[in-house]
Design a protein that fits this description.
Elements: E1 5-15, H1 19-22, E2 28-39, E3 42-48, H2 49-52, E4 61-72, E5 74-80, H3 94-107, H4 112-128, E6 131-137, H5 142-154, E7 159-162, E8 164-165, H6 178-192, E9 198-204, H7 212-224, E10 229-234, H8 238-247, H9 254-260, E11 268-272, H10 278-286, E12 290-293, H11 295-300, H12 308-313, E13 317-320, H13 332-344, H14 352-359, H15 361-366, E14 384-388, H16 393-400, H17 405-415, E15 421-426, E16 429-433
């Protein structure tokens, strides 16, 4: 295969560490006039344009963006493919919302044509918003995952997804059994896991919709295929937590249910965690598990405020999640806008560099993929974005007043949305152009 090499010149910024661990100044690299060199789908060089340009081989094309910022692609650690058609559904909290809106919407994925259509819309929406990797819930139907992976494979995207396992406390038209959930998941793993840049996630929806038998088999899949992911929900809503206590009276608490069935580990991601306690955060951190912080959803469904400082205290890996359709935007910029407010309401601050970390390297660490995505280090996948400083008249005017990269970054996260993403690249190929 012939060597393909291309360079991109712009202001360039990426996270290199968690600000909570190393301090803000040591957490990022910024090149005011930077150059990113891409070879065969991977980043081969990153640095100051003045230093790298003279050494570029003759004939290498250089794309120049004088009024833009290049960052790593965004990473969404919690989102639901089948809920794309019900974003912004009115008037309920979690459990009623599931019964009123979510389950009927997910039932449509019994039709493979519907699954294919929504997978196409969903992936275009991710890329339009600069999300290059997502951890995705399918529906209970295997065709939801087949449709998603087929669409992602065509674009060589690094994506993670799984079929929902749900064998109780849901409508009959939307349940599997412990055995069928296990067998269908196994068939999907054999077909897709490790194919290109695709990974499979064992996906029990949440403890109340799986019997002990199903949770046992979910744990068994993780033993049989040690490099799989596991995704589920935890401690999102107070009613839900009470329900778990009633269904599993023998367990110490919500997290202990998952712990008992051996679902914690380095590639296990628990969505929300709004009402976790100190001991649960410590146990999650100890096992290398991660939490997906989903602020737009937690506000929209009235679930509560995620305690990021408590997670930081325990060195718990935290990624950012849009949680569409409980969440109200595919945009991680908009999600960070809300995350800032979550912290403000708790008397804490969210630095723009911590926000960048959550949307990129933090998400990669939550997924144990920091050697491949989340930064712009040479050797990693060339998944990156071009963010346009002039995307809207207000953004353009406001950024003229910004006098530091910190201020520029914060304004992008406060006023930015899908329009801010000029181009999205995955494995070095342009997969979205505004």
């Amino acid at each position: 295969m012939p060597l393909t090499r291309k360079a991109y010149r712009a202001a360039i910024l990426h996270s290199i560490a968690d600000p909570a661990e190393v301090g803000i100044e040591a957490s990022y690299e910024y090149f005011e006039d930077g150059l990113l060199v891409v070879e065969n789908g991977r980043i081969s060089a990153l640095g100051h344009a003045s230093e790298l340009l003279p050494g570029l081989p003759a004939g290498v094309q250089v794309e120049h963006y004088p009024d833009a910022l290049i960052t790593p692609g965004f990473i969404d650690t919690h989102i639901h493919l089948p809920q794309t058609g019900m974003v912004g559904a009115y008037g309920e909290q979690l459990l009623d919302w599931l019964n009123t809106y979510t389950f009927p919407c997910e039932s449509q994925f019994a039709d493979p044509d519907h699954a294919n259509e929504v997978a196409d819309i969903f992936i275009k929406e991710l890329l339009r918003n600069g999300t290059t990797t997502a951890l995705v819930f399918g529906s209970v139907h295997p065709q939801s995952v087949n449709a998603f992976f087929a669409a992602a494979e065509k674009l060589d995207l690094r994506m993670i997804a799984g079929k929902v396992m749900m064998d109780r406390n849901a409508p009959d038209y939307l349940t599997d059994t412990a055995e069928s959930g296990y067998q269908e998941s196994k068939a999907l793993i054999e077909r897709w896991h490790g194919k290109g840049r695709l990974h499979y996630a064992v996906t029990p929806r949440f403890a109340p919709t799986s019997t002990p038998e199903q949770l046992t088999l979910a744990g068994q899949l993780l033993t049989e295929y040690p490099d799989l992911y596991m995704q589920t929900h935890i401690s999102e809503n107070l009613q839900e937590i009470q329900w778990v206590k009633e269904l599993f009276p023998e367990r110490k608490g919500y997290l202990d249910v998952y712990d008992h069935y051996q679902l914690l580990g380095e590639r296990s991601v628990f969505a929300h965690g709004v009402h976790l306690c100190d001991d649960e955060c410590a146990r999650l951190a100890e096992t290398g598990s991660a939490v997906a912080f989903c602020p737009t959803s937690n506000f929209f469904l009235g679930s509560g405020l995620f305690n990021l400082p408590m997670a930081e205290k325990h060195k718990l890996n935290v990624g950012l999640g849009t949680d569409v359709g409980g969440g109200t935007s595919f945009s991680l910029l908009q999600t960070l806008n809300e995350a800032y407010k979550v912290m403000q309401l708790q008397g804490a601050r969210l630095s723009p560099f911590k926000s960048l970390y959550l949307a990129t390297l933090g998400g990669a660490r939550a997924l144990s993929l920091e050697d491949k995505i989340g930064t712009l280090h040479p050797g990693t996948d060339a998944d990156f974005l071009v963010l346009d400083y002039h995307a809207t008249p207000l953004l353009s005017y406001r950024l003229k007043q910004a006098n530091s990269i910190a201020e520029t970054l914060f304004v992008l996260m406060t006023l930015g949305d899908d329009r801010t993403v000029l181009q999205t690249f995955a494995a070095g190929q342009q997969v979205h152009q505004r």
